[in-house]
Design goal:
By secondary structure, the chain is α/β, with parallel strands linked by helices. Helix content is about 40%, strand content about 20%.
């Protein structure tokens, strides 16, 4: 068993980006600028946004963090997004999810300019992904593909099972893995809460992408020897023995599953850093289209 270490792979990507940004600066060209919008004080969201801002600093991007109280109206938030859409200095816009219940995720995502949608959630970008066109790929699936590429995981002709069908991970992941690319060229099965005989599908899989948000859902008896496991889940589970009061668990029961795998991602330190690296790449690509 070997570890698909997202910290190592993401650092390699950030090192390349730092060199590229330094080159832009030396040539007097525009430096990438990411604007992040945070609504409310959700602890996990605070952590994620802080990590994204830190990554911008590491690679030499400009970053702007815009904070709003949880009580902000949807109309005011959409007005701010439109201001960012019209700001020529801003290359990428991300609005950290989840949002308060009185604000529609769909309205927010649809308001972001597709050319600045570095999270890759806008329907225009999803449509381009479906058609195999150049686009901003949703950051988590893109990060997983970059991770597989970094570790030279063979995917062509393999059977990949994606557990979960969200628009953020599961569905775009299935498209990317089945695309005529490297990594890619998998035969893909999407499983979800209504799938019957889920264990049988998983036992056929050469690659499992677990993205359902249920801690330690994937057990050893669901995995055949030599499987590649990518664990997208990250859930805070109460733990009174820790200062934080919680520990992070993935969707895979790591201790019992890992010995059967050829490769597996840890939680944390697997997919999370790759999501941020992919976001940085999307922002850089947005910027260079203007240089």
């Amino acid at each position: 068993m070997k570890i698909l270490d997202g910290k190592i792979a993401s650092q390699a990507i950030k090192d390349e980006l730092r060199i590229d940004v330094a080159q832009l600066s030396a040539e007097g060209k525009k430096i990438p600028h990411l604007a992040a919008v945070l609504v409310g004080n959700n602890g996990a969201s605070e952590t994620y946004v802080a990590a994204k801002v830190k990554a911008c600093e590491e690679v030499g991007f400009i970053s702007t963090l815009i904070r709003f109280e949880e009580s902000i109206s949807e109309a005011k938030l959409l007005t701010k997004i439109n201001e960012l859409n019209n700001d020529p200095d801003v290359d990428g816009i991300l609005v950290q999810l989840p949002l308060p219940k009185h604000i529609s995720d769909e309205e927010v995502i649809n308001t972001i300019d597709p050319d600045k949608d570095v999270d890759g959630f806008h329907p225009v970008n999803i449509g381009r992904l479906m058609q195999g066109l150049s686009t901003y790929i949703p950051a988590t699936p893109y990060g997983i593909m970059l991770l597989l590429e970094h570790y030279k995981i063979e995917t062509a002709g393999k059977h990949a099972v994606v557990i979960g069908r969200s628009n953020i991970v599961g569905r775009p992941m299935s498209v990317l893995l089945s695309s005529n690319t490297n990594p890619g060229n998998c035969t893909v099965t999407i499983c979800h809460s209504k799938t019957k005989n889920l264990n049988d599908y998983c036992l056929q899989a050469d690659i499992i992408i677990a993205a359902l948000g249920k801690p330690e859902f994937v057990k050893a008896d669901m995995v055949k020897e030599g499987t590649v496991i990518v664990d997208v889940g990250i859930t805070r589970v109460p733990d009174n023995t820790r200062k934080s009061g919680f520990k992070l668990k993935g969707d895979v029961a790591f201790e019992e599953v890992a010995p059967k795998c050829s490769w597996i991602t840890p939680v944390p330190g697997g997919v999370g850093p790759m999501t941020i690296a992919a976001l940085m790449k999307n922002t850089y690509n947005s910027c260079i289209t203007k240089n």
